[in-house]
Amino acid sequence: MISTRYSYGTAMLAAFEYLLDKYPDVFVIGQGLWSPWYVGNSMTNLEKKFGVHRVIDTPVSESACTGAAVGAALAGMKPIVVHPRMDFMLYAMDAIVNQAAKWSHMVGGQASPGLTIRSIINRGGEQGAQHSQALHAWFAHVPGLRVVMPATVADARDLLIASVLCTSPVIFIDDRWLYELEDNLPTIIERDLSLERPLCLTQGTDMTIVASGYSTLLALNATKELALQGIYAEVIDLRVLNPFYPELIVNSVSKTGRLLAIDGGWSTCGMAGEVIASVAERIPVGTLKKPPLRVTLPNAPAPTSVVLEKAYYPSTEFVVKIAITLLK
Amino acid sequence: MNDWSFGPLADPLQYQHPLDVKGQDIAVLLHQLEMMLRIRMAERCLANAKRDGLIGGPVHLGVGQEAVAVGVAAELHKTDRVFGTHRSHAHLLSLGADLRSLFSEVLGRDTGLSRGMGGSMHLWDQPNGFYGSVPIVSGTVPLAVGAALAAKLQGKSDVGVAYFGDGAIEEGVVHESLNLARMLKAPVLFVVENNFFASHMHISLRQPKEATSRFAAANDIPYAIVDGNDVVQVHMAAAKLVAAARNGDGPGFLEAITYRWYGHVDWREDIDVGVNRSVNDLTSWRKRDPIARLVSGLHGTGLFDLERLKAMEDKITKEIETAWKLALSDPFPEPSVLTSRVYAEEGVSQ
Predict the structure, then answer these.
(1) What is the pLDDT along chain A (328 residues), one digit of tens a residue?
(2) Which of A316, A306, A325, A323 is nearest to A127 (CA)?
(3) Which of A130, A268, B32, B333 sits CB 3.0–4.6 Å from B110 for a disulfide?
(4) Of A299, A305, A318, which to mutate for an interface test with B (greatest number of B Cβ within 10 Å)?
(5) Interface test with B, best of A47, A48, A60 (most B CBs within 10 A)
(6) What global pTM score does this model have?
(7) A173: which DSSP letter?
(8) Chain A neighbors of B195, CB-CB under 8 A
């Protein structure tokens, strides 16, 4: 089989090229699309290849651009809205939560805005409280939105394509800290997003680690360290946060008896809590050998100062340390 | 101006002449010159430090735009309520902020204006009237309206000031804020620094007309469009609008046409990242230098010469060197503040 080397960033670029090339009803709209610095290498030269009428850099108007994409989707297009920083996407909350998420239900399933909203978690670099947020749990809370968080190069490409081809509104959240990941990918096969489920990325017997997005990379790196110490963890990558399918996690925890949930957001009402609750609801009393644990951000906005930023984001070492306490 | 285009004001080859300082208070002008120099030299210091890797976070510089903040600040009191943007070093310094505290903040030190929690994009100096700046475009515009409304409710003659750029006018909340301020007669001054760019995008690619004042007119708010690189003109226009706001007449809108010499972020000039930002434009705009034009204007009065300018520059150079050195040796915050500063002190239960 032919395979091609991609990074997480160029895998998304390949998805954009595939979609724009094959589907004339796909267009992309958002800020910074003609500028080299906002979206890494994930959209390079798209406007030159496909035209500025289909790859639209916009005024500073997140709310109107997102609402317009909802309307265009209702009128038969497959828009992709790009918010290079999730923080600015908050201006678009009405279009996302009140309009796009509700539309199908409100009109009896007779119409649905099939748009994709790509939003980037853009942490680090001492950018601070308003340029660093990972708010995937908010969107995963809302029925009607499909929330996708690719953690691998393959998913960066294939789930983006699946998201855009999906007839429901999709929030596709990629992570700047994953852009350098590399992998060989086979030829594109179009997938049905509604059939995508969590995936088990490593087999293990001692504990189950559940994560998504960048946290999955953290889990995989920690798992390698743990293996050196003779501890074998099963890493499950959520991939799609809403609708949420916990079966694979429940099966894994039934086997390992230990659960660690890692999430790049905050703890309260967050994704890690959802993972733990879903397992607790479904497994027989006595299956768990230890109370489940979660690794999340501290209950604070992102700081700017370099020393605080270092303390703020969980490291591989920190995950290893917490994982080991599950065995004690 | 009826067609909402700036005409010659948008042409950088025009308005390069020395400022007309006739009838102006020379002491005020000298103070303004010194402040503009301080702002520019402080920002040059930050640009170099960013280039040399001494600053971690993003730094948005406003070199070339100093006259706007300095002209407006001439009409403000310490009790006024000023809100800024991602590019607010000048707004802050023009109100008299301490240089070392700004530098410490940009370096993430505990002694910084925001105690090291915010960096260049999140500045705070309320004792001098600077209520805060943030990088979410137009995020503070309604806050300034509210702070102005508070002054009115408190029976004070203080005003709110909302600094923002031509890009921010593209956010819906700005239009709501204009209408709301007008209907509530909030004593707020909206100051648009129209530098033609939102990040990499020229205004011609974002708006059908150059003058954002058309939205002031639409909301029945008195406005003025001025050469933003002429501190005298900015000051005179601000004086009129601020006086009206203090007098209970409601909001005003000041649009200052200017240009930033650096790119959107950090020390580069951004002649390669966008459209319509050429080396030629930049070179021409540098000739509409608000500082050099004031110096020339003052020179013409016979009350100021290059020797005095040199003395002024030397004094500020020393000031900046000292402040930078002190800031560099200031301590970082303790890690425990990560969670202890999330809520106001009285809300902490432990």
Answers:
(1) 688 999 999 999 999 999 999 999 999 999 989 876 688 899 999 999 999 999 999 999 999 999 999 999 999 999 999 999 999 999 999 999 999 999 999 998 999 999 999 999 999 999 999 999 999 999 999 999 999 999 999 999 999 999 999 999 999 999 999 999 999 999 999 999 999 999 999 999 999 999 999 999 999 999 999 999 999 999 999 999 999 999 999 999 999 999 999 999 999 999 999 999 999 999 999 999 999 999 999 999 999 999 999 999 999 999 999 999 999 8
(2) A306
(3) B333
(4) A305
(5) A60
(6) 0.92
(7) E
(8) none
- Which among B131, B259, B278 has a CA at the least distance from the CA of B194? B259
Picking from A64, A129, A307, the nearest residue to B172 by CB comes out as A64
- Mark yes or no for CB contact A307/B342 under 8 Å: no
Tokens 């110096």, residue?
B295
d(CA B164, CA B126): 18
A-interface mutation test, from B115, B338, B342, most A Cβ less than 10 A away: B338
CB atoms within 10 A of CB B1: 12
CB contact under 8 A, B205 and A57: yes
Question: DSSP label at B125?
Answer: B
CA dist A35 and A49 (Å) reads: 15
3-state secondary structure of B84: strand
Chain B residues with CB-CB distance to A62 below 8 A: 171
Per-residue burial over B88-116, b = 16 or more CB atoms within 10 Å of its CB, e = otherwise: bbbbbbbbebbbbbbbbbbbbbbbbbbbb
For residue B309, give the 3-state DSSP assignment: helix
Pairwise CA distance, residues A19 & A78, whole Å = 10
Q: Sheet containing A116-121: which strands, arranged edge to edge?
A: A55-57, A26-30, A78-83, A116-121, A170-175, A146-148, A240-242
Per residue, what are the HEC states of B239-307?
Answer: HHHHHHHHCCCCCEEEEEECCCCCCCCCCCCCCCCCCCCCHHHHHHHHHCCHHHHHHHHHHCCCCCCHH
Matching residue, tokens 């920002």: B43
Q: How would you label B258-293 residue by residue, b for 16+ Cβ within 10 Å and e otherwise? A: bbbbbbbbbbeebeebbeebeeeebebbeebbbbeb
Q: Is A52 on the interface with B (CB under 8 A)?
A: no
